Structure formats: structure tokens, C-alpha cells
């Protein structure tokens, strides 16, 4: 099992950061423009049972990725788990913690690669590098958007 973690202090209250993640277009907004990903659907918001479906492109080959939300405590945490997709295992926890009037946004991912421990040893570093690019982008967008929204209120 491999692990990835990214944590950023967002300059906005928890309610603002949580509500930003509830936007209907959040998946499009948080997908980096350089990633070959298409958002197919998002149903159910952040609550338990919510579904997100993506089409990932590895060169000309499209792969379907479906994630279902398995945990939700409003203004605190929501967790999604891969139901169908390219990983052997994937659980992603999104945590929102108040910190001095701001929000500590932490993404924690536990994942496994198809092919087991040998493939994880060979490619885990590469997946972590991809996740770091993705979540650096996501946290930067969240910081910019939520700081702006916080200034408006």
C-alpha cells in the first residue's frame, strides 16, 4: 500500500473552503489543463453515495474511473473510494480543519498499483510525482478562489 499526503493552509474559513468544494463545476475547476482527463459526471455533491466519473487518456487509450463517496462529515471530511478504474486500490480523504480563522486542507491518499509490490516499488515514485503536480495545482486554485471569496464576504 502506498500513501500520498498534501496539506495547505488556505486563507479562508472552513465554510468557504467546504462550499467551494460543493460547486457543481468543482471537478473541472480542479483539473489541471495539462492533464488528459474528461469529467463525465458528478452526482450527489459531497455526501455518502455521491459519484464522480472520469475518462482518463493514456495516449489514445481511454480508461474509465468511477469514485464513490463513502464518508461525509460536513465542514470536516469527505472520502471517496475507487469503484472502477486503473488503480488496484484507491481511497482519498479530503480533510478541512479550522486553524486560526483559516482552513488546513489536507488530502490523504492510500493507493495500490495493479501488479502488486514490485510494480509499486518501480512506479510508486512516478505516481507520487504525478499526485504532487495535481494536488499542488488543486491547492493553489483553492487558495486563490477561496481567498477571493473570503475577501468578498
Plain-language structure description:
The protein is of the alpha+beta class and 153 residues long. It has a single domain, classed as START domain (Alpha-D-Glucose-1,6-Bisphosphate, Chain A, domain 4), CATH 3.30.530.20. Helices cover 31% and strands 44% of the residues. The chain is built from 3 helices and 7 strands. A 7-stranded antiparallel beta sheet has the order 1-7-6-5-4-3-2, with helices on one face. β4 and β5 form a beta hairpin. The chain is globular and about 45 Å long. The termini are far apart. The mean pLDDT is 94.
CATH superfamily placement: START domain
How many domain modules?
Answer: 1
What is the terminal separation in angstroms? 42 Å
Structural class: alpha+beta
Q: Give the C-level CATH assignment.
A: Alpha Beta
Given as residue ranges, the uncertain stretches (5+ residues, pLDDT < 50) are none
Placed side by side, the strands forming the largest sheet appear as: 1-7-6-5-4-3-2
Order of helices and strands: EHHEEEEEEH
Strand content: 35-45%
Mean pLDDT: 94
Count of individual beta strands: 7
Principal-axis shape equals globular
Characterize the biggest β-sheet.
Answer: 7 strands, antiparallel
Please give the radius of gyration in angstroms. Answer: 16 Å
CATH fold title? Alpha-D-Glucose-1,6-Bisphosphate, Chain A, domain 4
Q: Give the % helix.
A: 25-40%
Protein name: Streptomyces cyclase/dehydrase superfamily
Organism: Coleofasciculus chthonoplastes PCC 7420
Amino acid at each position: 500500500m502506498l500513501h500520498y499526503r498534501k496539506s495547505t493552509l488556505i486563507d479562508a474559513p472552513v465554510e468557504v473552503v467546504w462550499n467551494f468544494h460543493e460547486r457543481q463545476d468543482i471537478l473541472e475547476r480542479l483539473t489541471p489543463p495539462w492533464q488528459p482527463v474528461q469529467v463525465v459526471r458528478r452526482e450527489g455533491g459531497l455526501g455518502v453515495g455521491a459519484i464522480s466519473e472520469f475518462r482518463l487518456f493514456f495516449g489514445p487509450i481511454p480508461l474509465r474511473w468511477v469514485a464513490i463517496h463513502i464518508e461525509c462529515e460536513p465542514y470536516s471530511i469527505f472520502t471517496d473510494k475507487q469503484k472502477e478504474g486503473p488503480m488496484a486500490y484507491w481511497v482519498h480523504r479530503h480533510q478541512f480543519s479550522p486553524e486560526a480563522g483559516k482552513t488546513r486542507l489536507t488530502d490523504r491518499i492510500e493507493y495500490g498499483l495493479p501488479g502488486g509490490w514490485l510494480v509499486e516499488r518501480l512506479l510508486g515514485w512516478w505516481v507520487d510525482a504525478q499526485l504532487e503536480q495535481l494536488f499542488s495545482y488543486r491547492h493553489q486554485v483553492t487558495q486563490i478562489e477561496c481567498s477571493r471569496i473570503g475577501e468578498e464576504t
